User: Fold this.
Amino acid sequence: MKRSRIAFALSSVVFLVVLAISPVKDMLLEWKGYQKDYNRLIQDLPQRVAPAEIGIRQIWVPKLDRVDRCVTCHLGMKEKALAGAKEPFGAHPRIDHDVEEFGCTICHEGQGPATTYKESIGKVAFWEHPMLPREYIEAACGKCHKEKTVTHAPVLSAGRKLIEEANCIGCHKIAGYQRQWVPTLNGIGSKVNRAWLYAWLKDPKAYFPKTKMANFHFTDAEADIMADFLMGFTSFSDSASLDPLPAEAAAPTEAAKTALEELGSTRISEARCISCHSINGKGGSIATDLGKVASKTSQQWLYNYIKSPKRFQPKVLMPRFRFSDKDLAGVVTYMKTEYTDYDLAEPPKHTPDPQYYEKGLALFKKYNCRGCHELEGVGNTGEVGPELTFVGSKKLYEIDFGQSGIEESLPSYLFTKMTKPRVFSSVAKMPDFGFSPEEARAVAVALLGNTNERIPEEMQVRPKQASTYDPQGEFGKLVNDLACFGCHTMEGRGRLVATDLTQEASAAKRDWIENYFKVPYSLRPILTERMPNFRLSDPEIKVLTDYMSKVFLTDTLAHDLSVTEASAAKGKLLYEERYGCKGCHQIEGKGGYVGPPLDKVASRLQSGWIFHWLKDPQALRPESIEPNNKLSDQEAEALTAYLLTLK
Amino acid sequence: MILSRFYRMLTLALLAPLLVAGCGRVKEKPASLAANADSTQHVDSAAAAPAPVLSYEAQQGRNIFMKYCAVCHGTEGKGDGFNAFNLDPKPRNLTDGAYMKTLTDDRLAQTIREGGRGVNRSSLMPSWGARLTKNEILDVAAFVRTFAVDSAAAK
Assistant:
């Protein structure tokens, strides 16, 4: 009897415990703990914040196929009072997207429906998209924003720029990138000397630190074979040939040499070569460094190339300066004296490998040099690397981490691939682009954004269609010859190193444009890149200005106004006092120099342009940093009137 | 005696899972989320000194500041941008903690939005309300605030 009583009591206790398990488990759920912590936290705040009702919360975004329960614990997301509070309760930084509309995991990744910390960050088995580390977060912008420069995503934009500049699409297929101009190797044997080529192949950045050419880590023997192989290609594209060096430059007397050097020095500074080229690191960064160029190539090559760059590199963005033979003799004599590397080490002696051609060709193909450089007789070998259009959706099991020992995640893989391209496999062929850690991270961010996720069409931001503008006729020939697109944009094509010329005839006066071609000067003294003096002939200038005044014109920008003394005086007051224009612009040497000086602005600009510019500068040039003062028409007219008195 | 022992056991049995579960939760609590912010680094932080960790807003604000404001206020906010010596009065030294403390957030944003003339100061400070969005102005203000904090910490 007693025994059965004990048994009964025991079983009751067990039954009670079993009954208690479920409610206790429910009470102790991780997220409930956070919600209670949150409610305790907000009691200490100076402002009143509504307490959280205990319960699961979620954001459902059907069009992105996301269910995100992150807000179950991230309760202070929208509470300004909780900015900087401890996680998970801190307010979300201000961004341009509404979290209710987009959810969380579309940007952060991780496992949206999960309700525990560990599962939600997604570092669990079989979840392929763990949360993006914060330094890679801009990768998510890239899923929808496909334009090259994404506002408010500087890392992503920098990465896309690097991918384009490094010409990754030479070896990898990646949708949305343009092929870069890379010099043809046809005739390289008649252009450079072998010692330079050998050193260049071993380490391109030693000669020119900013070069886009990657380091293939050739062994000495490989570099010897490649140098011998390439030096064999002595004939240029389109059977161009080198003219002999003018006699006066070939063997000048001492006195003549000094005169030539002086002439060359003048021409070089007039032509503003350093707008694009650097000399031992100082100067522009658009083109190669010239500090040691006379040790790389011969005077004869320099003479021929400067005389007519496109004969040898048909698509190069180097303008053809209108130098006379005498000028050129001076320029190359000066370059020989000034741009020679007198410390250049003698190249190691070598006996050419008897099979250098076959072995060289094999190396050339193995490393897909043809992906970037054209070479006569070597056809396109096709992409050798994997396609990267959807690399951001690569599954972890598809990646071979080898012996690298890095964290096994896609961001860390891509980052490491950019800094140590051959660390994952002994047979990897990818060259070393010399990316800094910041650059490598930017490239990884851009690549991570290349996913195959389905994004509704209306949520995608597509890049603008590439402009097909291609001027023909005499003007077109000149634009090509002077490589205008290298710095200027016209009708949506070209670069923005210098002014967008699409509306230039509405902006500037014809006389001024003509004079500017004759004697270009720097409108903004702070810029490095300056318009070179091409030494154009009068008929050439007429061709250019005729075309510009007909085509680069926007009728709606005309705005004639009569200048009265009263309106000009009112404008002057606005200029000096109310809007503080003098802070950035100079007149008669007084004022700032962020913007161009405004002396004689009336001889330069059209009245309509000044008026519309003052009303809304970015409507005319989106990249301008001129403040928009929201002037009334009367104010803008008065200011214009004042500026028109500055002749 | 027997009964009281039963009660003791019962209490223990009921409390045990409570304790175990309670400990488990504490152990799983993430301490790392806030620490993640420390690893945030940005491409344009070329400075050799370890850059202070900026909030997301301040990072965005820095990009805007460098484009529009640094010409006068200087890249370090000291009011010594290359254009500063042409100006009278000089641009505000934004690292001046004592002064910046007297500025409310609203006033700071208003100064950026409406320029000097909006707040009875020199009109040499332009108004950016039409150029920058409301959020961009708040971002710049957030970044500007970091100058004074830094100098205070350095002292």
User: Anything to note?
Assistant: The mean pLDDT of chain A is 92.
